[in-house]
Structures are given as C-alpha cells and as structure tokens.
C-alpha cells in the first residue's frame, strides 16, 4: 500500500515562513548605522581637540561610519559629561571625553550632578595631559624660582590663565600657591587654545595648562618654567618637574571616552575596539608624541576603577581649597 504524500496547507507554509523569519526580525540592528558624535568639551585648536580629531577619523574607518567631532567648550570642560548624564539616549551614537575635571565638578557646586564612578559607561582610557607653566619668551622670569620670588613680593599682581575654575591646572596652581606662600590673579578660559592666545597677546602674564603651548615653546615664543608630570618631558629635558622643585603634586592624569549609562555592552565593545585600534595607529601615536602625551590605555572598567579611586582625593582637595561656584 503506497504511503500517502502529505502536502502542507498554505496557512502552514505561511506559519513556517514566519517562524523562520522571526529571529531576523527580533535581532538587534547592527551598530553603527549612522555617524557617531564625539563631544569634546574644549575649544577647537587645543591639544585635546587635535588628538581627538585624528583618533576619531581613524576610529570611523574601523566603525564603517564617520565619527563627527562636536566642540562644546565652557563650564570647566564638563559639557560632554552633562550631555551624557541624561541628555542623550544610551545608544552609543553620542559619546564624550571624561577627564579629571569631571570628577571634581560635583564637589564645587550645590546643584545635583553626577557621580563619575557610576553614572557613565566607560569605553576606554586613552592618554593624559602633560601640563606646565609657561610665560612669554621676553618675560623677566627665567625660571620657576624667579617667578615665585616676584609673586611673593607682588601679591596678586601676576595673572595666570588656566582652562577654567576648578580644572586640573587651576587646582595644581592653587596648591602650589599655598606651598610657595604666593598669590596669583587667576584668569579662567575655555581651553588651552584660548589660554595660548591670551598669553601671546599679553592678556595674561603666564599660563598653566596642558601642552598646547608646546609648539610655541619650541618656536621660541614661550618659555616653559616647570611641568607637572611623573618625569621630565622628552621634548623639554632641561625643564624640571614640580616634584623636582619640592612639591609632590600634579602628575599625568588619564582621560578617556564614555557613553551614557545603560548603553548596550555590545555597542560599548564595538566602540572600544575601534578606538583602541585608533589609539595605537601610527598616525595617532605621532600626534601624542607631538604634545608629549603618553599612551595610557585602559579598558572601560579599568578607567572607571581609576576614576572611582581618584574621586575621594578630588573631594578632599576641593574641600581644603574652598573652591565653590555657589
């Protein structure tokens, strides 16, 4: 007796097709499908802006979508953190730079802000700033000691520009003024691009900031008196560190990239891999060398842990210096 052939009905075939298609319909869309915005909380033209632009261009090639730079200067370099903290979706399409000033910001204002240890999803650590104190080449102070002697004899008469109240360089200088028993006239700006113009144009007597001043020092337009780093800078081997001058402050603090809290771990991994590849690309390494910025690679979790450990130090420093905006 022949075995009957069973032919499925149209309804059954439709159901089978729907079942087979279901995984594809439910699968998350590939990331990224459009450009990624990278928020730089500093004015164009500074060391961070230059470094990030090269890194973003390279990372975009690995992502298959462009990484578009958006400069948001002001507020002591905290606009990127503010945007990531509740202003944009946690989808990976808006990321930003998180630096040491973001850690200290909540302790200088009464307004509710973020806890940098838990309120961002970190992507990776990248590098850190070489910072120092520079004067114009024609300034009457050949070294750190001569400037400090002058400032002690003329309290509040020497104007020093930084990238904002409560920023890393301002905090270092505030500590150093206490150690040296000197008084400065602090003039805050929105980034090293602005402090550089201010010094060259004579608006301020000195600048304490990250290494956007390096090309001007090499060109003979500025004189570098001291740096706050762990060791002397390779490009400026004759310039002492603050630690050599007897003050155990400063050092290179890492910064990196973060996304809003709640970003898909797979998206974070994609961003991490693209920016890590860009970090170690020869073209990007050449930019870091130009500004004496070391490679300080960390995974997102390692950067979060470093920030978490640093936050109590920043809190105590702000309390001791009495810096407040309100």
UniProtKB/TrEMBL annotation:
Q: Which InterPro entries match?
A: BUG, Bug_dom1
A Pfam family (short name) is: TctC
Q: Which domain of life is it from?
A: Bacteria
Q: Which residues cross the membrane?
A: none
What's this protein's family per the entry?
Answer: Belongs to the UPF0065 (bug) family.
Protein name, entry field: Tripartite tricarboxylate transporter substrate binding protein
Protein source organism: Paeniroseomonas aquatica
